[in-house]
Amino acid sequence: MLHSELVPATESRDGGTRRLMVMLHGLGDSVDGWRWFPEAMNLPWLNYLLVNAPDDYYGGYSWFDLDNMVPGVQRSRKLLFDLLDDLRARGFPAEQITFGGFSQGSLMAIEAGLHYPHRLAGIVGISGWIFEPEKLVQELSSIARQQRLLLTHGTSDPMIPIDKVRPQIPLLKAAGLHLEWHEFMKAHTVAGEEEISVIRNFVRAGYFKWSDGAME
Question: Which of 52, 145, 180, 206 might form a disulfide with 122, Cβ 3.0–4.6 angstroms?
C-alpha cells in the first residue's frame, strides 16, 4: 500500500466534486516536494492526491532502482493499479482522475496509465522518459489509444537529456496515442507559470471539453 495524502478541493460544483489529480514525485523526493502544486495549479474544483514511492532513498523515496529497473517498474505499476482501483472504489471514477508525475514519477504515470484498462481524464508526464517504449506500444491496454497524454521536458535538463526523450515521442504518436509534447527552456524542474499554464489547460480540458464548456 502506497502512502498518500489527499488535498481536497476548496470549491465544488453541484454540491461536490470527484475530480482528482494524482501526482507522483521524482527520485529522492516525497509528497513534501509537491505541496506547492495544488495552489500553483489554481483549479479550486480539483482534488489532489500526493503519493510517496514505495522505496526509501536517502531521506526521500524511489519508484525503482535505476541499476535494475524492470522489477521495480513492474512492482510500482502494480501498486499504482491498486491505488487507482482503490480510488475508484472510494468514489473517484477513473475518467475523473488525471494521472501525473515528475521524472521517475512521470515514467510511472505513463507506464501505469497506458497499461491501465480504464480511461482516465488525462496523463501528465513532466521531465521524464518512457520505459522500454517499443515494448510499451506492443502492450498498450485496450483503451490506451483513448487516453490523453501531455509530456513536457527541458531543453537543458542535465539529469534526463532531452535528446534521450525526443526520439520516443514520434514512436508513441505512430502507435496512435493522443500525445501533446512541449519543450521548455529549463533544467530538471518545472518552468514556473509558463509550464504550469500548459499543464493547467490540459487538465482542465480533460474535465470540461465535452461538457457545457463552463471553464474556471
Answer: 206
Please answer whether residues 53 and 22 qualify as being in contact, where contact means their C-beta atoms are separated by less than 8 angstroms: no
Q: Which domains does the chain have, with CATH numbers?
A: 4-208 (3.40.50.1820)
CA 95 – CA 75 distance, rounded (Å): 24
- Among 144, 126, 122, smallest CA distance to 201 is for 122
Q: Are 150 and 125 in contact (CB under 8 A)?
A: yes
pLDDT in tens, 80-116: 999 999 999 999 999 999 999 999 999 999 999 999 9
Distances (CA, A) of 48 to 7, 24, 203: 5, 11, 12
Among 108, 166, 161, 153, CA closest to 126: 153
